[in-house]
Amino acid sequence: MKKLLLLMALCFVMLKISAQGTNEAKIRQQIETAASNMKSMQCDFVQTKYLRMLNDKMVSTGKMYYQQSDKLRWEYTSPYSYAFVLNGSKVLISKGSRNDVINVNQSKFFKEIACIMMNSVVGKALNDKRDFKVSLSTTTSEYIATLYPQQKQMQQMFQKIILHFNKQKAMVAKVELIEKRGDHTVIEMKNVKVNSPINAKIFTVN
């Protein structure tokens, strides 16, 4: 379960980026400024996990919702039902008919997960030297940010995380999570809506 939650945290990096030609410091500052203006966001996602040992892949789909500054719902809808809801200091993990509520202030692990998620959303992930070493590059159609985990627990699981930014829309379109053992996961964002109303019930934790 910890690996799944870390994966959710690391892939939840919906950030905006600046125009081509600026230096890294300016790009980072513009990401943080633009992301801070994002009051809410929702999208569909397709997650494909490639298994090196089995030469196979597993495809899952779901929905993500974010409300500034401390509400998040990451929900798998197919081929199984699983939801992770963060609302302030509480986390709800829902799997089938079972619901577990956790106070993040009483769990170092979940507090770290919450911190990574929120830092990503508000644009601090690329400036967070404690959690990641970041390399930025560009192609004709993308900005690419490669994040190298600096914390021991994440280093044991992930070699690097690659964020692909669509220049035209100025938002993350794809995330790659490269695991230490050779497996890798690709998450593609679809139908992204920014600053559209979200029903408060989406973030209910009880």
TrEMBL record:
Repressor as UniProt keyword: no
Keywords associated with the record: Lipoprotein, Signal
Keyword Signal (UniProt): yes
Domain of life: Bacteria
Pfam families listed in its UniProt record: LolA
Signal peptide start-end: 1-19
InterPro entries assigned: LolA/LolB/LppX (IPR029046), OM_lipoprot_carrier_LolA-like (IPR004564)
Protein name: Outer membrane lipoprotein carrier protein LolA
Lineage: Bacteria, Pseudomonadati, Bacteroidota, Bacteroidia, Bacteroidales
